[in-house]
Structure prediction request, 254 residues.
Amino acid sequence: FTMETGLRRALDRGEFSLLFQPQFHLATGELYGAEALLRWETPEGRQIPPCEFIPLAEETGLIIPIGQWVLEQACLACKRWYDNGHTSLIVSVNISALQFQSDLFPDAVRQVLRQTGTDPTRLCLEITEYTAVQNLERSIRILKELAGIGVKFAIDDFGTGQSQLVLLRKFPAHHIKIDTTFIRDMMEQPDDEAIVRAVIGLSHSLGLTVTAEGVETEGQMHKLRQMNCDRIQGYYTGRPMTSSQFKAWTKRLN
Ligand code: G
Ligand code: G
Ligand code: MN
Ligand code: NA
Prediction:
């Protein structure tokens, strides 16, 4: 068994699943939506973390069919939330560089939206700075094309890459997600707090809204609220959960 062989079979054998981690509006406490997070369990019952298999899926190109499956499942889940009366919930989907740069990507997104009957304005695509700058002019074109039908874009893991400020100016994304590491350290490290505050201010000046990731404590949440951060996601407000857990959980919020 090599991981590559396993990965090649995993889609056919139904070994992938998605978890959904809730995201909240910080000002109102209202549920905003959820990020879809991919999980792989082998037939032997081994859980392989995405940080191990996603790089391999990218190297082998398998991320294209896997990513397509993720997009489809995430949209199906969002459609179910919508049909259950949660018409404002947004599903966020991680898109890898190879997938985003594929010529077929914009059509693939449109097709999934159509086939699943998902309102395009309920979908947010998360791409990293690294993905966006690969081929910036082309990335901007793809973003504009999909934003034109209502799809939203978030710059993921913000602050961990080469953080090119020019990206924020040139790339008309809707949201940015401040990486977990800054949120984790901001209560002890004044520098991290200063960075988080500055990123929120800069983003707002440029018309982007901000999600803080990896919020684990009430203290972090309060600080982020003071800083006017728009949304939070993290273990404090909700762990990644299965779609049926998420459904049961949204019922309790009503
Ligand atoms: O929960 P967490 O361990 O799921 O995720 C680890 C990393 O894997 C994160 O960087 C996340 O962006 C990435 N990831 C999770 N799900 C997906 C997915 O469906 N597609 C891609 N490309 N990356 C994902
Ligand atoms: O796509 P992205 O790289 O942003 O993936 C989010 C990652 O953050 C996932 O691996 C998810 O499981 C993880 N995560 C979500 N909430 C928390 C949290 O509160 N603390 C930490 N340490 N990680 C979290
Ligand atoms: Mn993400
Ligand atoms: Na992130």
